[in-house]
Write a structure and sequence with these properties.
Layout lengths: L1 E10 L4 E10 L2 E6 L9 E4 L4 E4 L1 E6 L1 E2 L2 E2 L5 H12 L3 E6 L6 H17 L5 E2 L2 E4 L21 H10 L3 E6 L6 H10 L3 E4 L6 H9 L2 E4 L10 E3 L2 E3 L2 H7 L3 E5 L7 H11 L4 E4 L11 E5 L6 E6 L2 E3 L6 E4 L3 H11 L4 H6 L3 H6 L17 E4 L5 E6 L2 E5 L2
Parallel strand pairs: 1-4, 1-5, 6-9, 9-10, 11-12, 12-13, 13-14, 14-17, 17-18
Antiparallel strand pairs: 1-2, 2-3, 5-23, 7-8, 15-16, 19-20, 20-21, 21-22, 23-24, 24-25
Helix pairs in contact: 1-2
Length: about 400
């Protein structure tokens, strides 16, 4: 199918093309132009003066619409992809929770079968294993029963079992974590620091040995600490000091406006990716929910636009959608539309190593395209040339 999208303002990583036209052929972008050119036999979509943007890429997502990737079903994978496509996500990295090895292997199996059937939602870019190699002290809502140190026998078995692992998050200060990071990079898997009490020297060693991303900056990680009266820079300060990429849950709750502004000021749009870290309650009414597997997961309560532990002592996951991230960065952090969009398109595409085919509206790249208004309300979502959601 050939699709012509016209009469819209095209967002590029560095400028906006007013009243432009995007041509899609055979699932790829064939032309981006300032002219309303004639295209024979094309399905024409009038953007009606709205914005035309690259599809949003979510590097870290657990669920939505009442489903979680740890539910153990193909339906969960497919429904999550469909739900989030309504909010502008055209590509995602499905994320696990800390669990037993058998549960991880089962989830990887389901990913591979669901990936072959996924035609109606956001594309999958590989799995993100979040844990189980974490610091118990920074577990957050992760189940402490399954937290453990990196075990070469275990992770080598998992790595050999599936080629669908795209990233893996771990605490770099744990025994064996440096060797683990090296092994991930040998396998071309993105290694990220997460749920960690590491100090600068430990993060530096990890960075030198393959860890290149800070998972949900500020959430479940150390800041400045004191030991025997001496101060030590934590993981947060290390992420700022090192040339490390960061991802942030920009829902306006996990990080308030001053911290959103600080991340943007120091790391900038090119080093900061926006993530939902969404759990199953994303896109659902507030109230009781479950983090992780429906039958055995952690009961949580959703209120104030976020999931909390039942005693309200800690956040237990985000219920954000991708459109909310962009609105939040613009409205609370005073970030321009161009930069806010870049932080959820071009930047995550580079981080995941798919910027040769995703993340910007450039001839030859995948036709992952959005149309949205000035409030970032999604009107149309196109994934690889397929219209998967349309509200125009």
């Amino acid at each position: 199918m050939t699709i012509k999208i016209f009469n819209g303002h095209i967002i590029t990583p560095y400028r906006i093309i007013r009243n432009g036209t995007v041509i899609i052929q055979d699932g790829r972008i064939s032309e981006v132009t300032e002219q309303n050119i004639e295209v024979a036999d094309a399905l024409e979509i009038d953007a009606k003066g709205n914005y035309i943007a690259p599809g949003f890429i979510d590097l870290h997502i657990h669920g939505g619409g009442g489903y979680d990737f740890m539910d153990g079903t193909e339906e969960a994978f497919l429904k999550i992809a469909e739900i989030h496509a309504r909010y502008g996500t055209t590509a995602m990295v499905p994320t696990t929770l800390t669990s037993e090895k058998e549960d991880l292997l089962k989830t990887l199996d389901i990913y591979e079968t669901a990936n072959k059937k996924n035609q109606l939602g956001a594309q999958f870019l590989g799995m993100h294993l979040e844990g189980p190699y974490f610091a118990v002290s920074q577990r957050g809502a992760q189940d402490p029963r399954y937290i453990r140190n990196p075990d070469p026998a275990e992770y080598e078995e998992i790595l050999a079992y599936s080629s669908s692992i795209a990233r893996w998050s771990a605490a770099p200060e744990l025994p064996g974590a440096i060797a683990f990071g090296k092994r991930l990079r040998e396998k071309n898997i993105l290694a990220a620091v997460a749920h960690t009490d590491a100090i600068y020297e430990e993060v530096l060693e990890a960075y030198e040995n393959g860890y290149s991303l800070a998972t949900h900056l500020y959430s479940a990680m150390s800041g400045v600490t004191r030991k025997n009266a001496f101060r030590y820079a934590g993981t947060i300060e290390s992420a700022y000091l090192l040339d490390m990429d960061v991802e942030i849950i920009a829902d306006g709750v996990h990080l308030p406006a001053p911290l959103l502004k600080l991340v943007y000021k120091i790391k900038g749009a090119d080093k900061t990716a926006l993530i939902t870290d969404a759990m199953r309650a994303a896109g659902m009414p507030e109230g009781d929910s479950v983090l992780g597997p429906l039958e055995t997961g952690l009961k949580v309560i959703v209120e104030d636009g976020v999931a909390k532990l039942p005693d309200r002592s800690s956040f237990a996951g985000s219920v954000s959608t991708a459109d909310r991230l962009v609105r939040t960065m613009m409205g609370m952090a005073d970030v321009s539309l161009i930069d806010a969009v870049r932080m959820i398109t071009a930047t995550p595409a580079r981080i995941m190593g798919v910027d040769n085919r995703k993340g910007s509206l450039v001839s030859g790249k995948d036709a992952d395209v959005l149309i949205f208004d000035d409030q970032i309300n999604i009107k149309t979502t196109i994934v690889q040339g397929r219209i998967v959601y349309q509200k125009l």
